[in-house]
């Protein structure tokens, strides 16, 4: 469980240390003309270095859960607190983006089941923890189609209908780490081209240093290998390390796996030195080579501003360029001054990515582009009289995808919904077409669309966006209000509807108010939540899998030294039909069976689809 960057707080409680569905809402959005051009200043280029990592563990995929008796006394501090009152006042005064109410529409769920929860974490590890940090991926173990959910600090494989395939496994066992080390910030991805699974976490001691990122690879033969990436960075050029590499973010393309971290330096880890980017040879990882080549870029800043949450894209295409995206939740290089309102994004391109396997270093460049405005989130008021993630959430970029020649991302933003007297939290989303020049240097982008998703009377937090090959786009999220227990939901925009998202669909309603221990931990009127939702493209390329946090009836309870500590968070997992894609294939099947169309196809060169 890592120290969060900036305003993010994570808390782990141990056994010894601390006693221990369908609802209709109005959706609002703003879309931009597809011809809107993104403008930016001069391009910045960065120099990286070639390094290698060696295989740390080589074993079969663990199939049995392991319950350990970790004894941890560890409460992570809030590194930086945003001025929530100033943010709220600024947004309430009309500076936040405005958006309109467009009503609701029905949607179709294919599967919908209860995922892992705080009790599962307690049973697997022997401590209670907040928040879950949502990971989700879908693929095949052998010939069996499975869904993997990985959270703090437990993972499980399910059939698509939610039946467990194997035991729930604690992450120290899963990654082959000793129980004396802490693990958090899990993410995962199933690569259809290699039929390999990739899992990442940050691993650290109670003092935070040393620390490293674990990258676990499970190949087609169901053998697992773990590789370590040093994020302590004792020789960091900024001179502020040893550092703590917070929240490793996972990206992938046809050539490499990408990890980025937010690096915190100084003795008290109060200074963010910038982002670190690792590009690791995918082919060598899949072969589970003893030594794997990777390239590393340190101390990444842009426009004089430190980069927070540099998100590498999940690339669902044959592109030779890996794109990355970041927002600017902070106004200064040290990441101490929050931006209440912003309209800039950082757009990055990593070209010559095929060089990594042979020991080369790709070319990294970045520019700043102008987007729609977004604002720091306001307190997400919930049913316990407090708020979710008041001081732990900001407008950092969430997961990013490159598909159909477009780059998609979403982030939390304050929004003002028409006919709603209160400023709300919603999703600002972006779909843009990046460009590189003949040398592979970023040359700008044009926006296909951008807008907001918000629910009148509610607070929507932690959006996760993914698109299908046909063009259906989905956003998963948690949602709450003083009258709605923390719940999960999604919106969908089909290719036929253009950029307009339909109504919000609740996949599971929270069972009650959040009673988690962080709500009563003395922090300013907030409960720990998040730190992210997740969405993933089904291997069929048509359907969308999603997962997010909510409250559940299962309560993890620990009593120690006369004090009772509880947590009642859980997760919900579901997938949504890419209806437009299904209609597309149905129409295509009909056309291909028509003699007239077949004749036409022959006349244009016998194209197959």
Can you tag this structure with a few keywords?
mainly beta; Methylamine Dehydrogenase, Chain H; ten-stranded antiparallel sheet; five-stranded antiparallel sheet; 6 helices; disordered N terminus
Textual characterization of the structure:
With 609 residues, the chain is mostly beta strands. The protein has 2 domains: 11-577, Methylamine Dehydrogenase, Chain H, CATH 2.130.10; 579-609, no CATH class. The chain is built from 6 helices and 40 strands. Strands 6, 14, 15, 16, 17, 18, 19, 20, 21 and 22 form a 10-stranded antiparallel β-sheet that branches. Strands 2-36-35-34-33 form a 5-stranded antiparallel β-sheet, with no helix packed on it. A 5-stranded mixed β-barrel has the order 3-7-30-31-32.
Gist of the model:
The chain is mainly beta. Helices cover 9% and strands 49% of the residues. The radius of gyration is 23 Å and the shape is globular.
